[in-house]
C-alpha cells in the first residue's frame, strides 16, 4: 500500500470497499462492484446490475478491468471500551481514535473499526484500555 502523506481520511483509513461478501471486487473504468457470486457454467464473476435488478457477468461490461482480492468478513464483534488506534504524522503529530469493533476475516484476521465505520488496519499501534501513548522512539 502507498504510505505517502495524504489527508487524514486517505492516509489513516482503509475503505469499506476493501471488504466483500465474496472476497473479490470487480474493477471497472470509473467504479468498482462487489462480486456477488460466480456463474456455474462459465465460472465468470457476477455483479449486480442495479438498473435491471439482475446479476450479470463482469465480462458483459466493456469497461471491466480486473478482479482484486478483498477481505471477506465472516463476523463482527464489539470492542472492549478503551481500545484505541494510534497514528503519528510528522506534520499533524499524534492522533488516536477509539476502536468500536473488529471485523473478523476469513483468514482469521481482526481489523479494527473506528466510530465512523472506517477500517483502521494501517494504524501504527493499537493501544489497550488505559495504555499511555508511547514516545516516538519507543
Task: Describe the protein in words.
This protein has 138 residues and is mainly β. It is built from one helix and twelve strands. The longest helix has 5 residues. The two termini are 24 Å apart. The relative contact order is 0.20. The N terminus is likely disordered.
Q: Can you summarize the main beta sheet?
A: 6 strands, mixed
Strand content: 35-45%
| β-strand number | 12
Helix content: under 10%
Helix tally? Answer: 1
Overall geometry comes to: elongated
> Roughly how many Å is the radius of gyration?
18 Å
Q: What is the first-to-last residue Cα distance? A: 24 Å
Q: Order of SSEs, N→C?
A: HEEEEEEEEEEEE
Name the structural class. Answer: mainly beta
Low-confidence stretches: 1-14
Mean pLDDT across all amino acids: 84
What is the strand and helix layout of this fold?
Blueprint: H1 8-12, E1 19-20, E2 24-28, E3 32-34, E4 37-38, E5 45-49, E6 54-57, E7 64-69, E8 71-78, E9 84-89, E10 93-105, E11 110-114, E12 125-127
Features:
138 residues; six-stranded mixed beta sheet; 12 strands; elongated
Provide a brief overview of the structure.
The chain has 138 residues and is mainly beta. Helix content is 4%, strand content 45%.
Amino acid at each position: 500500500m502507498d504510505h505517502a502523506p495524504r489527508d487524514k481520511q486517505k492516509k489513516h483509513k482503509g475503505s469499506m470497499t476493501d471488504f466483500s461478501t465474496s472476497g473479490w471486487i470487480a474493477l471497472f473504468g470509473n467504479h468498482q462492484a462487489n462480486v456477488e457470486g460466480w456463474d456455474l457454467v462459465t465460472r465468470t464473476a457476477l455483479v449486480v446490475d442495479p438498473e435491471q435488478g439482475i446479476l450479470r457477468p463482469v465480462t458483459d461490461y466493456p469497461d471491466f478491468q480486473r478482479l482484486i482480492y478483498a477481505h471477506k468478513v465472516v463476523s463482527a464483534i464489539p470492542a472492549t471500551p478503551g481500545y484505541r488506534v494510534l497514528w503519528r504524522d510528522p506534520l499533524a503529530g499524534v492522533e488516536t481514535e477509539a476502536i468500536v469493533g473488529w471485523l473478523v476475516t476469513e483468514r482469521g484476521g481482526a481489523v479494527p473499526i473506528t466510530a465512523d465505520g472506517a477500517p483502521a488496519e494501517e494504524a501504527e499501534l493499537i493501544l489497550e484500555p488505559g495504555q499511555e501513548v508511547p514516545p516516538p522512539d519507543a
